[in-house]
Specification:
With 391 residues, the chain is α+β, with helices and mostly antiparallel strands. 30% of the residues lie in helices and 36% in strands.
Length: 391
């Protein structure tokens, strides 16, 4: 058993040392818990103040020379080389049909036969009238000959002879008029057979056998047949003003139709309107494409791609670097860490990029989307591009 004399006294030096050390540790913990947050807040305030006073960070885009060629993609509509509606020249009844919708015909093929009984009677009457006038003509001729002899003998007056001669010339004119009327009616009779003026496809038939047809043409009138020549197609598009000077007759073109896959149909510019539309400021342009296999259909919507060659490589800048003011167009150029507000002269607008005619050089660094804090002489820092940040 341990005797009371063996226990350490309550006020031993070792016990007091532990108490002092514990008290110091508590004091240090209390100090650290208050000082560290304060130091963190102070560092944050200092960093924010430094960021405010530092030069603003900007993103730049370089002015560069454009490609010598420019690919222009435009929407377009396809038409047949020739499209027409066929009408009759006079009133009649459809006796028979020789073609229908979808029929392929050649130039001169008969599409419909029309009976014109009234025209037949008019033609018979015109021929009878000519025969009557010609019979009277023989009489006027013989009368004129007799009066000519009487004039030579002095048995007739000049007035009487002139009357007989006028009657003869009037008869001759009547014969010419009657013959012209017969030719007119014969020509109309020829149109009793409705023929194709060119080879193509019948896209519509608006008449049936036995129908009464008339030569009505105008608002609301429908043709008997609609004919389209499809072996060569016309592709019509509108070229914007900024590219119109580069579009020339003979320029190669590619036509794409989404429903026909990625196949390109090659054609050439055959004509332009030589004038811009005042409403749209576009140049109406026609391209012809050979369509031997008939895959292209009239009325299709497609896309035209034109490769335009520029006369010289133009200087281009990104459209989001422009500053448009009442005095003109400006850009904020960064040189030696400072902003230089530079006035420029703009050329053609290519959408995301704009041509610059004067005021800049290739390689100039332009601030993208410059804000109100960007002014002439302001110091700025250029943000590193994404690639360099990743590196």
């Amino acid at each position: 058993m341990t005797s009371p004399g063996d226990l350490p006294p309550n006020g031993s030096p070792k016990s007091g040392r532990y108490v002092v050390i514990g008290f110091i540790i508590v004091i240090l913990l209390l100090l650290l818990s208050g000082i560290l947050p304060r130091l963190t807040r102070q560092q944050r305030v200092v960093a924010e103040a430094a960021e405010v006073t530092a030069a603003p960070m900007v993103t730049v885009s370089a002015a560069h020379l454009g490609d010598p060629t420019n690919v222009l993609a435009l929407p377009a509509t396809l038409y047949g080389l020739h499209e027409t509606g066929l009408y009759v020249r006079t009133t009649g009844y459809v006796r028979s049909l020789r073609a229908d919708m979808g029929s392929r015909v050649r130039a001169g093929d008969t599409l419909a036969v029309v009976e014109m009984p009234e025209l037949d009677q008019e033609l018979n009457q015109a021929r009878a009238t000519l025969a009557q006038i010609m019979a009277n003509g023989e009489l006027t001729r013989s009368t004129l000959d007799r009066w000519n002899k009487m004039m030579a003998q002095g048995a007739a007056t000049q007035q009487e002879f002139d009357e007989k001669q006028a009657a003869f010339h009037a008869n001759q004119a009547g014969q010419a008029s009657a013959r012209a009327n017969i030719e007119r009616l014969t020509e109309l009779k020829r149109f009793g057979n409705l023929v194709a003026p060119f080879g193509g496809v019948v896209t519509a038939r608006n008449v049936d056998v036995g129908a009464l047809v008339s030569p009505t043409v105008g608002t609301g009138a429908r043709p008997l047949f609609s004919l389209v020549q499809v072996d060569t197609m016309r592709v019509v598009t509108s070229v914007p003003q900024n590219a119109a000077p580069d579009v020339k007759v003979g320029l190669d073109a590619e036509i794409f139709v989404q429903e026909l896959g990625g196949a390109a149909f090659h054609g050439k510019v055959t004509r332009t309107a030589q004038s811009l539309d005042l409403a749209t400021r576009t140049l109406l342009t026609e391209i012809q494409v050979v369509n031997r296999d008939g895959r292209l259909l009239p009325g299709m919507f497609g896309q035209v791609r034109l490769e335009l060659t520029r006369g010289q490589r133009s200087l281009l800048v990104s459209a989001n670097t422009l500053i448009i003011r009442s005095t003109g167009a400006l850009v904020a150029v960064v040189r030696d860490g400072k902003v230089h507000m530079t006035k420029i002269t703009l050329g053609r607008d290519y959408g995301q990029e704009v041509e610059v005619m004067s005021g800049l050089s290739a390689g100039d660094q332009l601030i993208v989307n410059p804000g109100d804090d960007i002014a002439d002489g302001v110091s700025v820092r250029i943000a590193a591009p994404p690639d360099s940040v990743k590196a």
